Every structure is written in structure tokens, then in C-alpha cells.
Predict the structure.
Amino acid sequence: MMQEVNPAETTRANAFKMWMNAPMPMVTLFKTIDVTNLRRISKRRELKFNMLMCWCVGKAASRIKEFYTLPVGDKLIRYDSLAVNTIIANHEGEVSSCDIPFTDNIHEFNSQYLHLTREVAETCQNHDITESMVIGTSALARYEIDGAVGMYSGIFNNPFLIWGRYRRSWLKTRLTVSFQFHHTQMDGAHAALFLASLQREINNIST
């Protein structure tokens, strides 16, 4: 469910005044995270690495209240659920967008992930969830990148993560992640807290 809220009655009142009409209200943070545990689980349990990343993103975000409020147009909208978006290659050789509803149950999330991404790839039709606050992700898993700064279209204000190929060393596997967010939705401290929470979820994930 989603509903419009009065910005003046929220903790984002000042941010709403300062950033809603800013020409560039987006902020991007970069962080290199340790995904050794995620890669190990992916191989042992035969689970997709990208699915595990998306679940950890949703899990970390679900603990931070700022993720449930998003500027949409000139309004502030509050949601009671989250979804994680992933960009996938479709059967026409192009890319499509797929929103997966987040759930704490990783097995349910995996089932939805496999079903929805397969359906989107086959039909070449985006799967959009409008009743949840959607966190965007894009995995450039074939390429080694040091980071990416997303664009601000003025249409979509959703938080967005981008990552490339992970880097393996003798004992560790690391992945550089960029996280873009609208300053009305959260401050840098909230974003840094989210990235720290993402690392904890990756370290503690268990199937």
C-alpha cells in the first residue's frame, strides 16, 4: 500500500524543502564490500549470486525507515513494503526491467526471482510493482568497473545500486558497489548505514 504524506509531519521536512526543486538532488556513494560468504553460498547451494545480492539489498533496506518514503513527482509517498528491481537480458537481445517483491524468507524470494526473471526474459515485457518502494539494481557482472554514477531523469527518484564483476584474491572476494539516492529520501548518514547493513547481511546470510 502507498499513501501521500505531509512532508512537514515527517523527519524529511527540511530535506523536502531543500532538495525537491534542486536541479541535481541525487547523491552517489561508493563502497567495496566483502562478498566471500555470498560467493561461497552461491556455489554450495547452487543459488544465483545476483539473487543473493538482491535479497541482501532488500534485507538491509528493510531495517532503515527512510527507504519506505520516496519523493514521487512533487509529493512525498510512504509505502508499507519494498521490492528489488533487477535488469535482465531478454530473448530479443535487449534488456528488460523486473521488480521482485521483497520478503524476509530467502526461499520465497528466490522462487519469485526465478519465476519473474524467466517470465520477463521470455515475454520481453517489464514487470513493474507500483504499490511498493522499489530499489533499483543493475549488475554488469561481465565487466570489471570501479564504480558508476547513475543519471537523474527527473522521473524516477528511486534508490539505485550498480555493481560489476567481483574480484577474487587468495582469501577474499570483493565487489565495488555504487549507491545512488535522492537527498529528499535520505541523508548521507542513512546511505552509509545502509551500506554497512548490507555488508552485515552478506556476512550473516544463511540458507
Remarks:
- Residues 90 and 127 are 12 Å apart (CA to CA).
- The helical segments are 13-19, 36-45, 49-62, 106-123, 188-204.
- The mean pLDDT is 95.
- The longest helix spans residues 106-123.
